[in-house]
Design goal:
The protein has a six-stranded mixed sheet with strand order 3-2-4-1-5-6. The protein is an alpha/beta fold. It has a domain of 153 residues: Rossmann fold. It is 35% helix and 14% strand.
Length: 223
């Protein structure tokens, strides 16, 4: 059995500010760094034989740093693992977008893919970029081994739906430093073993529990 473990980055500064980030990046917040350290300890214990891959954006590189130290391994950076581009919304507070484009924002919240209209990537463009990477990484993982990918909410949400050949959205959003695990054997379609799991995080580090809710650039599902 081969395993692909997808980890969303820890809370970023833009998350904490409720700012649309997309491919812009200001790194992790203090909470995000704490989440990354807790995640690294749990993941290193659970998958000691893993190889590491990461998006090239700052918030993912900072998230994987304690894990890379634990593994004494330099992660492979791949720009195809980036979050989707959010066009002209990037860098703006959500409140600013709501004020300036209320109709389009409501369409987005209702599930319509409006991001191409503002110069960003459509969901299909995101899937076309991310799906081949996830598929190849899982295929190239040695039998009995694990590949860990630190990436973003959009790639995890859209990529997993497509890998499982789901024709409609069924999953809620992707939390900061959550773990999603897929496994593959002889079947062409991988098996989902874990989705958006945050049990490895102390309660005070979990998004939406005792910690403040962090904004996400992921799809408006489960917000």
């Amino acid at each position: 059995m081969r395993r692909l473990v997808l980890v969303r980055h820890g809370e970023s500064i833009y998350n904490a500010e409720a700012r649309v980030q997309g491919q812009q990046c200001a790194g992790l917040s203090e909470l995000g760094h704490a989440q990354a350290k807790a995640t690294a300890a749990a993941v290193a214990l659970a998958y000691p034989d893993a190889r590491l891959f990461v998006s090239d954006l700052q918030r993912t590189r900072e998230t994987i740093a304690p894990l890379a130290e634990a593994f004494a391994q330099e992660p492979v950076q791949d720009e195809r693992l980036r979050e989707r581009s959010f066009g002209v919304w990037e860098g703006h507070l959500r409140s600013e977008v709501v004020r300036d484009e209320p109709d389009r924002w409501q369409r987005w919240l209702q599930g319509e893919d409006v991001i191409g209209e503002i110069g960003g990537e459509t969901s299909e463009e995101l899937v076309a970029r991310v799906l081949p990477v996830f598929t190849q990484l899982l295929a190239d993982t040695p039998d009995g081994s694990t590949t860990i990918v630190v990436t973003h909410g959009g790639p995890v949400w859209h990529g997993v739906h497509r890998m499982l050949e789901l024709d409609r959205p069924i999953f809620a959003g992707v939390n900061n430093c959550s773990i999603t695990e897929l496994s593959a054997g002889s079947s062409a379609v991988p098996m989902l073993r874990r989705w958006n799991e945050v049990g490895h995080l102390p309660v005070d580090l979990r998004e939406g529990w005792l910690a403040p809710v962090a904004a996400t650039d992921g799809p408006p599902v489960g917000r």
